UniProtKB/TrEMBL annotation:
Active site: 198 (proton acceptor)
Top-level taxonomy: Bacteria, Candidatus Uhriibacteriota
CDD domains: AHBA_syn
Pfam families: DegT_DnrJ_EryC1
InterPro entries: DegT/StrS_aminotransferase, LegC-like, PyrdxlP-dep_Trfase, PyrdxlP-dep_Trfase_major, PyrdxlP-dep_Trfase_small
Co-factor requirement: pyridoxal 5'-phosphate
Record GO biological process: polysaccharide biosynthetic process
Stated name of the protein: Aminotransferase DegT
A single MF term (Gene Ontology): transaminase activity
Family under the similarity heading: Belongs to the DegT/DnrJ/EryC1 family.
UniProt keyword list: Aminotransferase, Pyridoxal phosphate, Transferase
Modified residues (N6-(pyridoxal phosphate)lysine): 198
Source species, domain of life: Bacteria
Database matches in SUPFAM superfamilies: PLP-dependent transferases (SSF53383)
Length: 382
């Protein structure tokens, strides 16, 4: 079987993790936690980075520190992994779903601007409310889909105007760039994931990054049970046990040392697929970055005719190739069926869902395996 995206441990992982075991620093304090946070902050050029247990926890805390509360609205893409939508519900807010850009598959930022300009109003508090229901618009969560950054300039501009917090879901896009700036630091708060299938992993892990010192302090506090006093069991609000362990951080420090190499390999893989599928233009397309973006190509994605997707998926799996569809549109899931989809439908997201497949692209995939995957895809069409 050729896996979709498996983790690669080819650096100092054993050495750093052994250090934790040898010294007894295995839990949520220890020098690797600080080293991992400092390393990511330096890499991204951001003032603060706080490590947490996973990307979902990072998104959850991001909404809390952004002040998103019960009955607020959170603007989200419908084409995404489900976590950034679920976290809106964790804080009692409701999602409104938006379509994607057909080229990048990221949030259609023009739709967000249209919604804020025509359906919302700023009130005396400076906050923005959805006119139809009177709910406050708490945040927008652009998701950098499949590693590709969102077109952030237009989004951050309109959100600044309406005082809507931008929480960049960069869980898939570490190593990507938007107009020369690193993905993850393009909004008010960025969230990262180090899940096993991500470009670098800690087994499970996440991080919140921000230039706002107050927010960073609050995340640290909330992620450690909101403990006020290191000695006494004194807590000043409802906190969470969300801190990453030193063992996981040690894993992360080793992986971070390889990030540039892994991102370069992911780009090479996507480009190689493009070459290998040359001549199949009428039948399939390899998703390509926008002119203003440098994608980490976390996943390599092909687009085929809608009636080909499912049969091709089944064919590849039968050949031992771990192809995968992209996510079901979130507004079609039972928990979100009643939620609003701006514009009534999400035609580009639906078209992407109907036509996109992810194909194997682990950092350690061999060139022979790339050829085997492309040969299998081509054999389906010939
Ligand atoms: C877009 C997106 N957001 C959030 C998450 C959640 O991250 P984690 O699995 O680390 O909780 C993931 C994936 O894992 C994701 O792909």
């Amino acid at each position: 079987m050729i896996p979709l995206a498996e983790p690669v441990m080819a650096g100092n992982e054993w050495r750093y993790i052994k250090d934790c075991l040898d010294t007894g620093w295995v839990s949520s304090a220890g020098s690797f936690v600080n080293r991992f946070e400092d390393g990511v902050a330096r890499y991204l050029g951001v003032a603060h980075a706080v490590a947490v247990v996973n990307g979902t926890a990072a998104l959850h805390l991001a909404l809390i520190i952004a002040g998103v509360k019960k009955d607020d609205i959170v603007l989200v893409p419908t084409l995404t992994f489900v976590a950034p939508v679920n976290v809106a519900r964790y804080v009692g807010a409701s999602p409104i779903f938006f379509d994607c850009d057909p080229g990048t598959l990221c949030l259609d930022v023009n739709q967000i601007a249209q919604f804020l300009n025509s359906e919302c109003e700023k009130r005396g508090s400076g906050m923005t409310y959805y006119k139809k229901t009177g709910q406050r618009v708490g945040a927008v969560i652009p998701v950098n889909a499949l590693g590709h950054p969102t077109d952030m300039d237009a989004l951050t501009e309109v959100c600044r105007q309406y005082k809507v917090c931008v929480i960049e879901d960069a869980t898939e896009s570490l190593g990507s760039e938007y107009k020369g700036k690193k993905a993850g630091v393009l909004g008010d708060i960025g969230c990262l994931s180090f899940n096993g299938n991500k470009i670098i992993t800690t087994g499970g892990g996440g991080m919140i990054v921000t230039n706002n010192e107050e927010w960073a302090k609050r995340v640290r506090h909330l992620s450690t049970q909101a403990k006020k006093d290191p000695l006494r069991y004194d807590h000043d609000e409802i906190g969470y046990n969300y801190r990453l362990t030193n063992i996981q951080a040690a894993f992360g420090v080793a992986q971070l040392e390889k990030l540039d190499e892994y991102a370069a390999r992911k780009r090479e893989i996507a480009n190689r697929y493009r070459e290998l599928f040359d001549g199949f233009a009428g039948k399939l397309k390899v998703l390509q970055e926008a002119s203003w973006a440098k994608s980490n190509y976390w996943l390599s994605t092909i687009q085929v005719a809608a009636d080909m997707k499912e049969p091709l998926l089944a064919y590849l799996i039968a050949q031992g190739i771990q192809a995968r569809p992209i996510w079901n549109l979130i507004h079609t899931l039972p928990m979100y069926k009643e939620s609003m989809v701006y514009g009534g439908d999400a035609l580009c997201a639906r078209a992407a869902w109907e036509s996109c497949l992810n194909i194997p692209c682990s950092v350690n995939i061999t060139n022979e395996q790339l050829e085997a995957v492309s040969a299998a895809v081509k054999s389906y069409f010939t």
